[in-house]
Write a structure and sequence with these properties.
Protein name: Gamma-glutamyltransferase family protein
Shape: globular
Strand order of the largest sheet: 1-20-19-15-14-9-8
Number of strands: 21
Strand content: 15-25%
Pfam family, one: G_glu_transpept
Organism: Siminovitchia sediminis
Helix content: 25-40%
Distance between the termini: 29 Å
Largest sheet: 7 strands, antiparallel
InterPro entries: GGT-like_enzyme, GGT_lsub, GGT_ssub_C, Ntn_hydrolases_N
Radius of gyration: 22 Å
Number of helices: 18
Number of domains: 2
Oligomer: single chain
């Protein structure tokens, strides 16, 4: 493939969008919210590196896009620094006092979505502090200051965030009657409604918490004043998480895992994340040659590869301490060929988890030294558990919703166990050099989005913006396929004839929201794309 004449051709732009591909020399930050992207870029201009920029943007996103992430969520990162890839898993385990037997004794037959039951130990603040300690240039307090300022002084609500904030408020108003949830409403619905698009919103308690995290390098969150507040509130309201759960938590540095896809090395983090699903699917898909993207056969082969990968993922991915599968064997060409032989002319019916939507933010950052960060953090489902620690702005995640109460399930709930995790940052290298930080947020859509944007760039030579703008499909379980309204009608009809149960979907959330930064190997110029399905922007320098 001639990179300079295909992938980076700004005139190759086959899908309509309000955005064009962005170029920059010194640095770039791509996020789902303009204020967060600008905070990251300002950090670069102050002498920060890509890691500092990513932390600044991530902390800002907990303030300016609380519909998708928060201080009480988890985070993962892939960092290219000084010519080497580093992986960080900052996902927290179930509390020590939480078990499947206890929940079943309390009348639960499955994991609930809201309340204390799905709350796991938050990892996001620990991720920021650990990344800063290992790689940052600037003082941690300085890096978190933009987020503190937005929380304290306020900011105008952006369109997509405002839409989902209102949607969550209306759902919670009808569903969450327990007094436990009063603190969510007092924080996020101060006027007995969600803030309107363009309306100023601020959270002084959120600012105080971020200031404490910044001053103590997150120690206060895990072993200090914030931990004590979380412990006391949990103890008083029937929660399971305690101070010792927080005190014992530290993020884990891990080695990324990868496969070669048609000359490019694709990297994901190992389980408990679902990056393995994306790699399994791409390893199957690479055995096919594609000449056109917009054909029923291309869609069919992508979908079937993904379904087979999800079937394996459902059966295998869990806490790494409980996994027995050999990742090397699973990612081998021989295994991919074996799975590829199952793909025929009609839709398969694999046994796999029914994918769902969730609330997540993804960002990518790059600096003038050539360093890159692929970073993702999440509350899981929109506002997570809807449990807010009073006076702190800490909205706790509901990541434990992915646990099972079935003792035969690979993600059977146990104390101190990490569950199957949906949020996954992606990275691409080419001939041992950094090529791209990329990600597509959105629950179980994430490996599906990874497969599609990688195929768009490598198989069909699209620039990052075109790769994100292209219409997507979303497998939602069994033979059910949602296709975006931009897909040509004849493709949906022919997929239906192949046995797929096809629905045309207009809700953009169904298809995830992505960011991509690429380094041109010939010019070292940064090239960025941001998803039109979100409020995102590329802040470039």
């Amino acid at each position: 493939m001639n990179v300079s004449n295909s992938l980076f051709n700004p005139l190759y732009y086959p899908y309509p969008s309000q955005r064009t591909v962005t170029y920059a020399k010194n640095g770039m930050v791509a996020t789902s919210q303009p204020l967060a992207a600008q905070a990251g870029l300002d950090t670069l201009k102050k002498g920060g590196n890509a890691v500092d920029a990513a932390i600044a943007a991530a902390a800002c996103l907990t303030v300016v896009e609380p519909t998708s992430n928060g201080i009480g969520g988890d985070a993962f990162a892939i960092v290219w620094m000084d010519g080497k890839l580093h992986g960080l898993n900052s996902s927290g385990p179930a509390p020590k006092r939480l078990s499947a037997d206890l929940l079943k004794a309390n009348g639960f037959d499955q994991m609930p979505r809201h309340g204390w039951e799905p709350v796991t130990v938050p990892g996001a603040p620990a991720a920021w502090a650990e990344l800063s300690k290992k790689f940052g240039n600037l003082p941690f307090e300085e890096v978190l200051q933009p987020a503190i300022t937005y929380a304290e002084e306020g900011f105008p609500i952006s369109p997509i965030t405002g839409y989902f904030w209102d949607k969550s408020f209306k759902e919670f108003q009808g569903q969450l009657k327990n007094p436990l949830f009063e603190h969510w409403f007092s924080l996020f619905a101060t006027k007995n409604s969600a803030p309107k698009v363009g309306e100023m919103w601020k959270s002084p308690s959120h600012a105080d918490t971020l200031r404490s995290i910044a001053r103590t390098h997150a120690e206060s969150f895990y072993r200090g004043e914030l931990a004590a507040k979380l412990d006391a509130f949990s103890n008083a309201t029937g929660g399971y998480i305690r101070a010792d759960d927080l005190a014992d938590y530290y993020p884990e540095w891990v080695e990324p895992i990868g496969i070669n896809y048609k000359g490019y090395d694709i990297w994901e983090l190992p389980p408990n994340g679902q990056g393995l699903v994306a790699l399994l699917a791409l390893n199957i898909l690479k055995g096919f040659d594609f000449t056109e993207r917009e054909t029923p056969e291309t869609y069919h082969k992508q979908i079937e590869s993904l379904k087979l990968a999800f079937a394996d993922g459902k059966a295998l991915i869990s806490d790494p301490s409980e996994m027995t599968a050999d990742l090397g064997e699973l990612l081998s060409d021989a295994y991919a060929q074996k799975r590829r032989r199952l793909i025929g002319s009609t839709a398969l019916w694999p046994e796999a988890e029914k994918p769902v939507e969730s609330g997540t933010v993804y960002l990518a950052a790059a600096d003038q030294e050539g360093n890159m960060v692929s970073f993702i953090q999440s509350n899981y489902n929109d506002f997570g558990s809807a449990v807010v620690v009073p006076g702190t702005g800490i909205n706790l995640q509901n990541r434990g919703h992915n646990f099972s109460l079935d003792p035969n399930h690979v993600n059977y709930l146990k104390p101190e166990k990490r569950t199957y995790h949906t949020i996954i940052p992606g990275f691409i290298t080419k001939e041992g050099k950094a090529f791209s930080a990329f990600g597509v947020m959105g629950g179980f859509m994430q490996p599906q989005g990874h497969l599609q944007v990688i195929s768009n760039m490598i198989d069909f030579h699209m620039n990052p913006q075109a790769a994100l703008d292209a219409p997507r499909w979303h497998w939602s379980g069994d033979k059910s396929i949602h296709i975006e309204h931009g897909v040509a009608p004849h493709i949906g009809k022919e997929l239906d004839a192949k046995g797929h149960d096809v629905t045309v979907e207009i809700n953009p959330k169904c298809f995830g929201r992505g960011q991509i930064i690429i380094k041109d190997p010939e010019t070292s110029v940064w090239i960025g794309g941001t998803d039109h399905r979100t409020d995102g922007t590329i802040a470039a320098w």
